Amino acid sequence: MIIPYGHEHSTVRRLPWVSFGLMGLCAAVFLVISLAADTGGTQADRDFTELFQFLSSHPYLEVDPELERELFRYIPEEEFRAFLEASRALGGDPPSHPRQIRHEQAELDRIAGRALRSLEEARDSPFRRFGLVPAELKPLALISYQFLHGGLLHLLGNMFFLFLAGPFIEDVWGRPLFAGFYLAAGAVSALMFAARYPTLDEPLIGASGAVAGVMGAFLVRYWKTRIRFLYFFFPFRPGTFTAPAWVMLPLGCGRELLFAQSWDVAAPGTGGGGVAHWAHVWGFAFGLAVAAAVSYWRIEERFIHRAIEAKITVHSNPAVEYALEARAKGEIERSLQLLSTAVREDPDNVDAVLALWNASVDSGRAEQAGPHLLRIIQAALRTDDESLVSAHWGELVVGWPGLQVDPALASRVVEILARDGQRETAAATLALARRTVRPDARIGPLVRLARAASAVDAGAAASLARAALARPDLPVELRSELAAIAADGIAPEDDADSRKAGDAARLIPQPPHLLQVIAAVPQALDDEGLVIAVDGATRRLGLRRVEAIAVGGVARADKRPMVVVDLLLDAPWSDRRELRVVRLTSTDFDPRALAPGAQPEEAFRAFLSRLIEQSGAAPLPDPDGARGLPFRAYASLEEYERNVLGLSPEGSPAEDPSPG
Fold it and tell me: Hey, how many other C-beta atoms are within 10 angstroms of the C-beta on 380?
């Protein structure tokens, strides 16, 4: 036998009045019903004992058919018939005098009638009135049945499991939500039990369905918590062990499911042989679903956490205090162990996380605590608490070299740091974000990060703005704003004139420029870059070096038009007079060898899209034109270079034998 007796969590922030109240109410109801049963006696048991004793000694008598039908409401017909057959096989002959038989028959009818009347009175017992009878489903019974228990062991078992898990769910969910969840878990489990056995005429009682819901919620909320168990198997000595909740609680639910299905096979329609296994299964499933929803929609962080913290006047962190004492004594390893356990038990304990971070930094193991500090900062930002960013973000950037920041978090952090005057930390955050920005990053956070960067680092802002301009999903109305940021790094709100220079549909280069053109033929495109042939030699061009990709359809006298693809190693909006350009022309290669597509046009567009996405370069003259949707047409190569690349009208391309 294996019995749980505790787990790693031992403290809560407030007294769990709801859990204690539920346990007290169940105990009070049990006491009242027990006293009532003692004073009222068990008349029905005595009457039925007398009935069966009389029948066993007078098996030749007949039970009235109408009385028999009433009797079968309470006793299975097969069992009653078997009892009669056994009694007649063992009984003697009937008396010879008819008057004696009539007298005995009348006595049997009297005893049977009294037994049935006693049963009818028993049907008015508290279990029948307030328990849930599937055949006579009453709405009020969905709640009242949860507080009835058929025996002391039944009560103690349910209350013990409620004590193990209930206070801790109540602590993190708050009293109102926990109370409603508990009653709802009991009601749902009862409804599903009634749906499984709709004709069952026996009452369902007990808090086990609601308690199973609490255990399901505990599994989701505290899935890593280690539970302590006591085991004893005769003739072996008893012992203890611990196991995580994610292992043991699903095993317990699986056991209930197995028993439920086994009883349905062995005794169909009986409701589980006196134990409502299906109610346990459905209660547990309901708890899982509700806890998963609370976690998914961050209900704790958004609504519950702040409300509870506002009502807590005394905060106690004994584990943190012990760890700090150990650290003061020079016991660094013990301090780290205590703090790691505290954070594992309560991931939202800010004091424990900060203490763990400080101890880890001092011992040169900041990477172990970095994820925990990052997590509580993110949780604080979800509740609009900026204090942790102002106080500790700089420590995280300096102390954790492996820190990775996505655009959504980076934009929020940079805005906060800029307001606080922490420009150096904000610039370091931007550097981290730029290294980890993915081509498929969401466009909204990317735009917000470029805006935030413009107040801190003009170069970083321009780079991020170009990355956003390269995206086909960038809204047209934002292109003018980002073009201005990409051109000079000045935020639109700081320079109204720069907004007028932007174009809503395209990034306009800043003339005049001269070109250094390298004619190349693409050979292959892979994750490492573009393989090109230049003057018969094969080279690899890293696409991250490309600042912009310009594409245009150029007319040629007496020939078919060609598409020019220029990979600009210097940005057209930069201050450089000469721009290095690797030029590909559609007449020199078959795009189907480089990208998928049944037709050359389809493969060519796929090739261009991959170039833009893989390089992160700005698309010119605009995202659609650079992808050939459709190609922008120009009357000559000179017009294309002048309008798209910003070539000086009097200038001419210069030769550069190498792409650098």
Answer: 18
Q: What is the CA radius of gyration of the chain?
A: 40
Q: How many Cβ atoms are within 10 Å of 584's Cβ, its own excluded?
A: 23
- Helices 175-196 & 277-296, crossing angle to 10 degrees? 140
3-state SS of 372-413 is HHHHHHHHHHHCCCCHHHHHHHHHHHHHCCCCCCCHHHHHHH
Alpha-carbon distance of 641 to 639, in angstroms, equals: 5
Encode 542-596 in three state secondary structure.
Answer: CHHHCCEEEEEEEEECCEEEEEEEEEECCCCCCCCCEEEEEEEEHHHCCHHHCCC
- The pLDDT assigned to 625 comes to 84
| Superfamily, domain 2-37+134-306 | Rhomboid-like (1.20.1540.10)
pLDDT at 281: 96
* CA 437 – CA 435 distance, rounded (Å): 6
Cα 228-233-236 angle, rounded to 5 deg: 105
- Residue 580: other Cβ atoms inside 10 A: 20
Six token digits for residue 468? 């956003």
- Identify which of 74, 75, 70, 208 has the alpha carbon closest to the alpha carbon of residue 132: 208
CA distance 509 to 641: 11
Residue-level pLDDT at 570:
80
78 burial type by CB count under 10 A (0-12 exposed, 13-18 middle, 19+ buried)? exposed
Alpha-carbon distance of 147 to 137, in angstroms, equals 17
- Amino acid identity of residue 342, one-letter, is A
Domain residue extents for the chain: 2-37+134-306, 42-124, 315-501, 514-655
Low-confidence ranges of the chain (pLDDT < 50): 38-41, 313-315, 489-511, 650-660
pLDDT at 286: 97
